[in-house]
Design brief:
Elements: E1 8-11, H1 17-32, E2 39-43, H2 47-56, E3 60-62, H3 71-78, E4 83-86, H4 89-98, E5 102-104, H5 109-120, H6 123-139, H7 142-157, H8 160-164
Parallel strand pairs: 1-2, 3-4, 4-5
Amino acid sequence: MVTRDAVLVMAGGPQTEAHEAYLHALSAEIESRGLQEQVVITGYLPDELAAGAMRAADVMLCPQEAGTGSYTLQVALGYARPIIASDLPCFIFLEEAAGCLLTFAGGDAQDLAAKINCVLGDDALRQRLSDRALAYAGEHTWAKVAERTVQIYEELAQPCSTRYLSEGSPGSLDPWNPGSL
């Protein structure tokens, strides 16, 4: 159970008929539990309203069940929001490599609540996650990805001897000499 007064804002809208059915079931469950004050479903938000929702969030939750190239996650990183994500390999990688989010055991509501309480109750942790999220987003812009892609293509376009051999350097890799590999 989340121990601090909090409002869960579910920003975005359904994209398929199955999502629409899920949204109706979820809305009914929220109402039956009397949680209308604690859970707000916004529906689709244009970029300018989504930006305000991001800035207002104390923490972003990404409880996904499958790995995706989540635009929402990328936006949250760019807005330097602390993020708690399910323990999918792509999110575990970000947690371990960049320290820019925390993961919880997917499907485990108690673990998610514990992580929410931890982040909301620890200003230093929240700031550290925010700082690392912004740093990660800054290093992974489209411009930097494009720059690195060009570098890789330029390296691959070099003749094999240029890539693998350096005149006069001992221990050079020679693809034509198995003993050097």
